[in-house]
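Encode chain A's predicted structure.
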Amino acid sequence: MNTAVLYASGLYFLFYAAMAALYPFLNLYYQRMGLAGTQIGVLAAVPGILNLFAASAWSALADRFRFHRGLLTLTLLGVAVAGFAFSLSTEFLPLLATAVVFALFLSPIIPLMDSAALEIAKQAGTDFGHLRLWGTVGWILAAWAFGFLVDRHFHYLFFAFAGLMVLAAGASLFQPRRRWAWERPVREGARQLLGRSDVRAFLVSALLLWASSSGGSQFLSLYLSDIGADGSIIGAAWAVAAVSEVPMLFFSGWWLRKLGH
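Encoded structure for chain A:
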């Protein structure tokens, strides 16, 4: 197997395994700290709101200084520390500050990984979906396994998250340097993209999709807990939910070639 493909697949696996150790269960942690539903909603909304602005700002910085790999490593380490810091806070305001820092570091990671993986897949003559598939595998295994820790050893999840994210940062060091970089000014590129009606339609569709799905996903664990599900069931539910991604990612290249972009 191509070494770059191997490391990109491993990075996806570690990153999404780390996210599965924390994301499905973080609102449960807020609830156990005594936060009200409104406060939990505010904390859950922070990543999505900041991502609208922070991801593009980070990406512009990476393009400007051709610092893609270094920025990916830096933000993976930053999100590892910020994620672990949740375990040190029990009040709303400290948790809100932690959520802001967490979201700022998290926002550029997936765009940076995906753009690098697209380039690697093209050079290796393989499909992007085959690389990204390993992220789903990591999520499925981790969500199922870490669900067993929720009821008795919840704080272990923060150690697992931080440890896996640090490993992901280590794997990112082996990513090849980008061979392509945007040469034009960022503002010019933004105007060029936003001037296209198909891009605007895509962005509106993505926003509507996120808005319609985020409410259910953010409060799924709380709902399952309220109806009596234990941590293992909650983890299994998140694992099963991700199974649908497997055929989509595996056959995505074939479908795109068949149906067009």
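The chain has one domain: 3-259.
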